[in-house]
Each structure stands twice: as structure tokens, then as C-alpha cells.
Design goal:
The protein has seven helices and ten strands. α1 runs parallel beside α2 and α4 runs parallel beside α5. 32% of the residues lie in helices and 19% in strands. The protein has a six-stranded parallel β-sheet. A two-stranded antiparallel sheet has the order 4-5. A hairpin with a 2-residue loop joins β4 and β5. It is α/β, with parallel strands linked by helices. The two termini are 21 Å apart. It has a single domain, classed as Metal-dependent hydrolases (TIM Barrel). It binds zinc ion (2 copies). The site of one zinc ion has 5 residues, from loops.
Length: 259
Amino acid sequence: MHTPLCRHAAGEPVEYAARAVELGLTEIGFSDHSPMRRDDFDDWRMRFDQLDEYVEKVRKAQKDFPQLTIKLALETDYLPGQEEWIRELAARHSWDYLIGSVHYVSQDWAIDSPYQLSKWKEHDPYEVWSIYFDWLTRAADSGLFEIIGHADLPKKFRIIPKEDCTSLFDKFLITAARKNVAIELNTAGLRKDCKEIYPSKQILQMAKDRNVAITFGSDAHAPAEVGMNFSEAVALARGVGYTHCRRFTQRKVESVILQ
Ligand SMILES: [Zn+2]
Ligand SMILES: [Zn+2]
């Protein structure tokens, strides 16, 4: 979940926590968009000098809601070459987990940005999906992350290649399994044009068959989105055979039975 520091989310962590308590959730996690080494990289993440403020906001929610487990995490952008920066971020606080996400397929194109939607018209969809999954595979292979975020994000605007993408998914999932990295079931996809959880049932079934672990996330950018559509996500996971998901505390993994 996110905070206003990323400049495209609303509501303080305490408000997200209040909503979680209202829903009867027992555990939530904040993983706001982490800073880049250069603050002018883009305008949809916290600045580096706000990192401590972010941690304080989450700590305040933890203090105000002792009945709720609140994890402190980051959603970190993976681009090849960012590894050293991500290691520096990882060392700055005692994070519970790091989510590695690919949004960029080049230094200046975030494929999920509605402001850059026209860029899709300049590229072949299969070429974009190929780069995306190649970078996602590298993210899984990097050993930097506990979780890989929204694994099939390129479907967001429903721009799907005609070509069969199974081999792209396969390479990524085999790497995730080998490196013991989980993928998240992210319900935000249901709120986008694709109207589908990330990842698709096809990818999730492949993940199950290859023994890739899962987590659940609402990717809430507002308190009202906390835990949204979780019952659908759990049903999807069960439908392909999952019985457990993962939880992380200070980057240590624990397997949790699906309730
Ligand atoms: Zn966001
Ligand atoms: Zn993301």
C-alpha cells in the first residue's frame, strides 16, 4: 500500500490502518514507491529526503494500532543497473520486505503511466512485453527482493500481443522458483482497464506448477482500496491449487495457510 509521499496516493497510513481494522484484517503492509538515486527521475515517488518521513508515518500507524500488524516495506523499481542503489536503500531501514517491480522498459517509459499511453502506439506489443518480462526475470534473479510486484503489468491498458507469451512467463517463473522469490496477487488490476487481477490465471497456474510462492496485495492508493477484492484473489489462488501464501518479517519468510 502507498502513502501521499509518492504524489499519486491519498490518505495517511493511520487512515489505511483504520480501514483495515474496520474490515477485520489482521495484517497490512506499506510498500510505497521508493526514491530513485536522482529525485528528478520522475514525479510519482517519494524524494530521497522523504524516506525517513515515510518510515515515521508507518511507525506512527504501528503505534496507534497495536491490534494490527503493520509491515514496513518498499516497492522498488527494478531497471538493469539499479542494483547498487537498491542495495543502498535496503540497508537504510529494517524493512520487512522489498517488492521489486518493473514499470519502466527504458529509462524514460513507464508502461503503466496513463500520461505515456501514446508510447504504446510507437512500439510492437510483443517487443514491449518481451523487454518487460526480461527485466522482470532479471529482478527475480537479482536476489534483491522478497516479492515481485504485479507480474503482468503490461496488460493494464489491454494491449496484449498476438504472439504466444508463454515462454516469456516461463523463463520468469522458473527464475522466481529457483531464487525462492514470491509473486503477488495484486487486486489493483481489477480497478484498471484490464479488469483482471495481476497476474492472470494462466500465469498463476504456471506459477503453481513451478512451485512459485505467493502473497496478496491490494496496491491501495487510498484508504477505501485497502483489502479490496481479496476474496476474489484468494479464490483465484485456491482455484489453481494454492494452499499457502507468504508473510515477511524483517526479510525473513514464513508460510501461512490460506484462510
Ligand atoms: Zn502507485
Ligand atoms: Zn507498481
